[in-house]
Amino acid sequence: MSSLFKEEGASLRIEILSEPEVTSFIDTHSSVLNGAISKSKMSDKMRSRMEESNWIFSGMKTFHELNEALPSMIDENGNKKPFERFLKDVQSIDERYNKNYLRAEYGFAEASAQMASKWERFAEDGDEYNLQYRTAGDDAVRPEHAALEGVTLPQSDKFWDSYWPLNGWNCRCTVVQVLKNKYPVTPREEAMRRGKEALAKDKKGMFRFNSGKEQRTFPAYNPYTTSKCKTCDLAKMKLAANVSDNELCESCIYLQQCYIDRDEVIKEGKGTVMISRLIDREGNDYKKVLQVAKEFAKDGATVKMTPKMSRPAEFLYDCVYGSLKGTKYYGKCPDMSVNGVWYEHEGLTTGKGKRAFSNMMSRGLEQSDRLIIDNPGLTDAFMKKSIYNRIAKYGQSINEVWIRENNGIRCLFKRSKD
Question: Following CA atoms 196, 202, 203, 205 in sequence, which dihedral angle do they give, to the nearest 10 degrees?
């Protein structure tokens, strides 16, 4: 509220979401939701995606809370209230958002994570077993949810995209694996009919999502978004059809960008290594790239490790690689920037000796003119001669080539300014 009180305009600036006080508030709220999913066993990738979902959800909630509090800054005469009076007047908003609402959201996040964990485990078996919908089986079961009791279908069936629990606030339904020869498969038309009956009151389809398949805690349409958000591909930053660039969409995209920019920071020697949240830490080269990044950082460099992206939307790509605009490498995904300069690491994957060296150079130069390659076991003289030949004979642009050893990195070649 202190940060909000500094606002001068009649409407809320979206940029307030990145103010330190507001970001801290979002962090605190999302950490509560992260606590709700902490006991569920899942892969690191799934947990990372669900924590991202919690942060964006918390950010959208904060945006609504600030918007609701904004009018309270002005008194009955149109003047700005003293801060103490303003703070007192918005206590009810805080009580509603951060006590009443949060209690329900915490329970939803906890159950949603449990169901995401189940989906991930079941996916390992695929259609070897069928999945069966089950209610809690007591007098508190909602009649509409009871309509889904016993629905049995393969995991690959699209039915589970829309009717995977949770199917409402405080829903206690679950899904279990069953042997194919023990329970008959429910005719799909019947299953879909029973699903529609169960969610008949969910007019806008808020609960028709699969937390495990979509890898997020809350559905795209939730109390802080609109029903049109269901058709918005957040992963590609593509707005839904027929949705104008209103402040809700703008705030959502802004929060996505803020989250992407929130790297893990590691102090190393005199410098810093920043690791993008989008990086696949289970990737084959992750440890090697991290070693290289730390070596550069030891001498005081600021190194940012960046992810590989397959057909990313322009907005998402530019959040990470925007500085490549105007260069021939725009659209590529080099592994890291060192003090703002892009480098690509290439490891030994195909061939040995001369062939390995040639392959690493060719692949690397598609991403950057500054390379770090794994030691191919060749003499420095041979490798330098090959580099000079690429420059002189083929006109290739090569500015630096470093060799990665098990115990560090060393500069093999650096083109002079002349």
Answer: -80
